[in-house]
Amino acid sequence: MPTSLPRRAGGAVTTALLAATMVTALSHTATAADGTLGSAAAAKGRYFGTAVAANHLGESAYAGTLDREFNAVTPENEMKWDATEPTRNTFTFTAADQIAGHAQSQGMKLRGHTLVWHSQLPSWVSGLGASDLRTAMNNHITQVMQHYKGKIYAWDVVNEAFQDGSSGARRSSPFQDKLGNGFIEEAFRTARTADPDAKLCYNDYNTDGVNAKSNAVYTMVKDFKSRGVPIDCVGFQSHFNNDSPVPADYQANLQRFADLGVDVQITELDIEGSGTTQADNYTNVVKACLAVTRCTGITVWGITDKYSWRAGGTPLLFDSNYNKKPAYTAVLTTLGGSSGGGTPTPGGATCTATYSKQEEWSDRFNGQVTITAGSSPISGWSTTVTVTSPQKISTTWNGTPTWDGSGNVMTMRPNGNGSLAAGTSTSFGFTVMKNGSSTAPVIGACTVS
Ligand code: G3I
Description:
Elements: E1 15-17, E2 25-28, H1 37-43, E3 47-52, H2 60-69, E4 72-75, H3 81-84, H4 94-105, E5 109-116, H5 123-126, H6 130-147, E6 154-159, H7 174-179, H8 182-194, E7 199-204, H9 212-227, E8 233-236, E9 239-240, H10 250-258, E10 263-271, H11 275-291, E11 295-300, H12 326-334, E12 351-360, E13 364-373, E14 381-386, E15 392-397, E16 400-403, E17 409-413, E18 425-433, E19 442-444, E20 447-448
Parallel strand pairs: 3-4, 3-11, 4-5, 5-6, 6-7, 7-8, 8-10, 9-10, 10-11
Antiparallel strand pairs: 1-19, 2-12, 12-13, 13-18, 14-17, 14-19, 14-20, 15-18, 16-17
Helix pairs in contact: 6-8, 10-11, 11-12
């Protein structure tokens, strides 16, 4: 059975990160458990994941957004062959372990990406003869999978083995050219032995609609299922833009694979664009997954446009300042979640936290957060302010702060009586020492207490 780590309890709060020049309000009810992508997806029996790069985990806004919103992780590059076995039989897992450890500590699912792929393949592999290559492939699969045994929900065992276009042929690669068509089956059989509990996926792009390439993958999966070759899932990368839009038959394509008896997963979703057009496209993808019972989860290919592999196309759900984009709200809403919006849930009071930057000097700036009660009175509130290291908050006023271990996350509560009549406001302030960085702080959702 696949390993499945439950999302930690109580992790669902809605937060917003605000650009320095923007004033944005979000609200959150203490009872709204579906206010994040991960919790809303979980309520639908699915995960909502993201690709993660180990070298950004030290950035508090990056890690904070990851931990708040997502309940599954795929290492963007760290588990690939060039990262894990750069020299034959010398395995390096440091960066991948960092991501795996982070995911485990947060109760997130971990997708393994990827074991056999023609790209990011060290040159020593391409130089091998057939017999040696077979040994090296099976050894690589075995060593990497055994290292992560018990920690991986699903592995992309083979990635991108088919050609684009109308041929339906396999792509030329050292594996294909020297081992022939049978390398895919061999890789899956080796993978099942190495970690019988991980789901084993075939993953590809331009297979998102019904076309010659997806037909070829479909034929292979059907053949594998009929002959008992171990395969549990098919990953649809779903990298979309104007030249490669979300296909009209996306859901039908997912469904026909699911009908073969495999899970389907959206594994690398990103959609270039902006505003409502981008939001509508994301909506269609999420709707398609929700409509297919065996679509077990969605992974976006990065948290923020800032670090996207195609940042120029702004394809992700958070902008480069970690603000939620319209696409984020569309995804959350389609998943059945709610970011509050100031409307109280039955029996629940709400508040909003609104940030505005105040004075700025060369070495520091002042921020102000206004707390406003929703349409019911509240007797207490709290919110968080997260700054990006090496920034530090040096002073606060009109509130009672507490700090996390890193010193980067401040939780602010009222000074004395926190009561606010319906619709009324109070505010607190703080000074951020820039230490070279003018990044805007992340203001957490306002929680009624
Ligand atoms: O880390 C080095 C850095 O030290 C160096 O200075 C820099 C200069 O080129 O390169 C950095 O490595 C880059 C790496 O991303 C990390 O940023 C590589 O050059 C670059 O090739 C690599 O790109 C990755 C790409 O796969 C490689 O094919 C992208 O991050 C990653 O998002 C992308 O992911 C793939 C999936 O694995 C499979 N499906 C398609 C998807 C998008 O291409």
